[in-house]
Amino acid sequence: MALRGLFGYGAGWKIEGLENVPKEGGIIVVANHQSNFDPPILGCSLNRHVHFMAKEELFDGFIKNAYMRAVGSFPVKRGAADMGAIKTALKLLKDGEALGLFPEGTRSKTGKLRKAKLGAVMLAVKSKAPIVPVGLNGTQHPFKEDLKINIGKPFTLDEFYERKLEKEEMRVAGEVIMAKIAELLE
């Protein structure tokens, strides 16, 4: 809540669709990514604690590492299949936790949505967890612009379950995820 006050100073903070976030059970929260402020803004906007997979560089040094772990984040090695991060994510979901992912894998400097990385698709299909799409609006300049967080209805990728997916099918599943996010952007 303190962060809401910080980011909302001089700007509004509006959240729509909070009723779409399941109160319990493992969920994957997916959102567009355009700012370093996106994880704390997204985490403060939901009615559940969200664990984020974050690039390992954010864990460099004692203080950064302690902070990132204290807020429930865990490191991922980008550019490779990081089995440790995947196992951590799947365990969190199995334990009924909320996992926050930015399927684009990195911030969009233009604000335009990028393609989903295949890791987000793989986690969604393997865990079978409901996916809650979120559109983050105004996070590029959270101290100047009004923040509008649009939360969509949960969905699954059940049409992709129970079979080994080829790369093309994973790309299509990624497009489904990104289309759900795009519907929530203004």
From TrEMBL:
Give start and end of each Phospholipid/glycerol acyltransferase domain: 27-139
Enzyme Commission number(s) from the entry:
2.3.1.51
Task: List, in alphabetical order, the GO biological process terms annotated in this UniProt record.
Answer: phosphatidic acid biosynthetic process
GO CC term (a single one): membrane
Gene Ontology molecular function: any one:
1-acylglycerol-3-phosphate O-acyltransferase activity
What reaction is this protein's catalytic activity?
a 1-acyl-sn-glycero-3-phosphate + an acyl-CoA = a 1,2-diacyl-sn-glycero-3-phosphate + CoA
- Note the SMART domains from the entry: PlsC
**Per UniProt, which keywords does this protein have?**
Acyltransferase, Lipid biosynthesis, Lipid metabolism, Phospholipid biosynthesis, Phospholipid metabolism, Transferase
**Keyword Transferase applies:** yes
Q: Which SUPFAM superfamilies match?
A: Glycerol-3-phosphate (1)-acyltransferase
The answer to keyword Nucleotide-binding applying to this record is: no
* InterPro entries found in the cross-reference section: AGP_acyltrans (IPR004552), Plipid/glycerol_acylTrfase (IPR002123)
Annotated PANTHER family? 1-ACYL-SN-GLYCEROL-3-PHOSPHATE ACYLTRANSFERASE (PTHR10434)
Q: Per the entry's comment, what about the domains?
A: The HXXXXD motif is essential for acyltransferase activity and may constitute the binding site for the phosphate moiety of the glycerol-3-phosphate.
Tell me the protein family, please.
Answer: Belongs to the 1-acyl-sn-glycerol-3-phosphate acyltransferase family.
Q: What is this protein called?
A: 1-acyl-sn-glycerol-3-phosphate acyltransferase
